[in-house]
Amino acid sequence: MGLAAVVSFAGVLRAQETSPSLGGVIRNETGRGIEQAQVILDSGSVQRELRTNGDGRFRFAGVSVGRHRLRVLRIGFQPRDTAVAVTGAVTDVTISLQRLTSLTEVAVRARPMGVYGTVLERDSLRPVAGARVALLGGRLGDNERACLFVNGVARPNATIRDFSVEEIESIEVYGFRSEFTNTLGKRWPRRDICGNLNARPLPGNRAQFISIWTRR
């Protein structure tokens, strides 16, 4: 009985070792890895998805041999669909994303103060009409209790007010129900406080994670 259990367990290990995997790296136009890109495997009713790590890498385990489709989404970049053939134990791909816009010349007629941008759908990245937009930090205490990441690194006790507009390239805000994969939650240091503990959240403050990308 004990021998049969050992043989069965060894068979499971061999099956795990030979189970095909599909992975690779997502890069921008300069060849730099893109962190937190959403990678969807075989979009549909049985799709799987994950986020890239700090080097832009990802890997799906237990992928069946055959043709598959990868869809990559990242705010600020053109969505990319790629067909991949999985034939062996390990399949790796490199996918490059192009930025949605590239400004080479800006004409300034006045100096109005304000924040400008575009609200996009999560999956298709298409513009959303009629979206309600709230200004972070517009009132005392707004979003000072959110967990703040700077260039992908957790910054306990920091708030968005610690950064000037000139330092920031882009900001991503995730509410309590919008971070589906809980990637940021898993990367937040356990027992560390999010933001300013002395700040009293105002009604309507629902930001859970704020990710700031600085100009560098």
C-alpha end-to-end distance? 62 Å
Radius of gyration, taken over Cα atoms and rounded to an integer in Å: 21 Å
Q: Remind me, CATH topology of the largest domain?
A: Immunoglobulin-like
Largest sheet: 4 strands, antiparallel
In total, how many domains does the architecture comprise?
Answer: 2
Annotation, overall tally of beta strands: 11
Record keyword descriptors for this entry:
single chain, 216 residues, mainly beta, Immunoglobulin-like, 4-stranded antiparallel beta sheet, 4-stranded mixed beta sheet, 11 strands, globular, disordered N terminus
Outline of the structure:
This protein has 216 residues and is mainly beta. 10% of the residues lie in helices and 30% in strands.
Q: Could you characterize what this model shows?
A:
The chain is built from 2 helices and 11 strands; from the N terminus they run H-E-E-E-E-E-E-E-E-E-E-H-E. With 216 residues, it is mainly β. The protein has 2 domains: 107 residues, Immunoglobulin-like; 68 residues, no CATH class. The strands form 3 sheets. A 4-stranded antiparallel sheet has the order 3-2-5-6, with no helix packed on it. Strands 9-8-11-10 form a 4-stranded mixed sheet. A 3-stranded mixed sheet has the order 4-1-7, with no helix packed on it. The protein is globular. The N terminus is likely disordered.
